[in-house]
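tool=predict chain=A
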Amino acid sequence: MNRDSNVYTIIYASVMVVLVAVVLAFTSESLRSFQKKNEDNDKRQQILRSINIQATPDKAETTYAELINEAFLVNEKGEKIEGDAFAADASKSFAEHKYPVFIANVNGKTKYIMVLQGTGLWGPLWGYIALDDDKNTVFGADFSHAGETPGLGAEITTHIFSSQFAGKKIFQNGEFKSIAIVKPGKSAIGQDYVDGISGGTITSQSVDKMIFDSLNGYAKFLTSQNQ
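tool=predict ok
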């Protein structure tokens, strides 16, 4: 075949595209189990951080198994339902009114961990918030994001931001109020609040909405457990 012909060029390019696609598909399939393991470990680390436990990737699975006693889904009525809480995709399960709950034992005390899911300035936001056994007082929290601005909105991942939530209450006089994110120096009437990120107003507002919307789905579960 004439290597200078258009036909040769087209055939050569087509063969190379197919070969590259096969190699990429094989590589992706080969690495899928490792990717899934890394994703699961990252999720365990985030859940553990919400109860103020730092675990390295190699220790995350063991530490999670030691501290997380139970995991299940609840519906908007606060009833336990069938499903895998750990495997649940928050954005999908929330849309179906299915809310993952993780129960931890920290120094002999029960902590209830709820999933947070929302949308930030540039992409998804998510996190975990742990409550004491009164199902009201925050024990710890952890936040993450897909693409918030470094040095601004991305600061929600820092301990400086998340540590503010400890001791705050999501119910006031038995009524669900959530926790407000306010501009530094400002306050919120009728509910507990924390300072937002300076220069990250939109992300702070998004976290505020995420916490309210997410925890509102758990309100019946938390109050029914209190009764």
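The chain has one domain: 43-226. Residues 43-226 form one domain.
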